[in-house]
Amino acid sequence: MVFSRLYLRKIRRIVRKMDKLSRVAREVDWVSGACMVIRRPDLEAVGLLDERYFMYNEDVDLCLAMHKRGRKVFYIAGAEVLHYRGKSAARNPEMERLRQRSHVAYYEKHLPMWTPLLRLYLKVTGKG
């Protein structure tokens, strides 16, 4: 999240690093759900997508489940997908609330000891 914000602010050092990383195929912790290829038996074995998430964090959760099954997640630099970012979720308060709810659900599931701190952060920043 921090790198994303710095990248969008066009911090030169971050932009160069992110652009360099995006040109190399490599194993990663997770990939965006905008474009994933998963073997059906693996997907069925982890129970598909967790319905607690509404459009956000389900991809991270799914990749974590794959890791727990001993599978690897790869970013493929040569693949191209045209994704109209933001078209599936217009910027409005309700969508932001749903995004934050998914974020909290992820923490409750995987990082429960940090959930109260996340809730506090969201409240203090006016996002909760």
Put the structure in a nutshell.
By secondary structure, the chain is mostly helical. It has helices spanning 2-8, 12-21, 40-45, 58-68, 93-110, 115-124, and strands spanning 26-28, 73-75.
Strand-residue proportion = under 5%
Question: Which segments are poorly predicted (pLDDT under 50) over 5 or more consecutive residues?
Answer: none
Helix content: 40-55%
Mean of residue pLDDT values: 82
Q: What is the oligomer described by this structure?
A: single chain
Q: Describe the global form.
A: globular
Span from first to last CA? 17 Å
Strand tally: 2
Structural class by sheet pairing and helices:
mainly alpha
Write down the secondary-structure element order.
Answer: HHEHHEHH
Which strand order do you get reading across the main beta sheet? 1-2
By DSSP (H or I, 4+ residues per run), the number of helices equals 6
Largest sheet: 2 strands, antiparallel
**Into how many domains do the coordinates divide?**
1
Query: Which value, in Å, is the CA radius of gyration?
Result: 16 Å
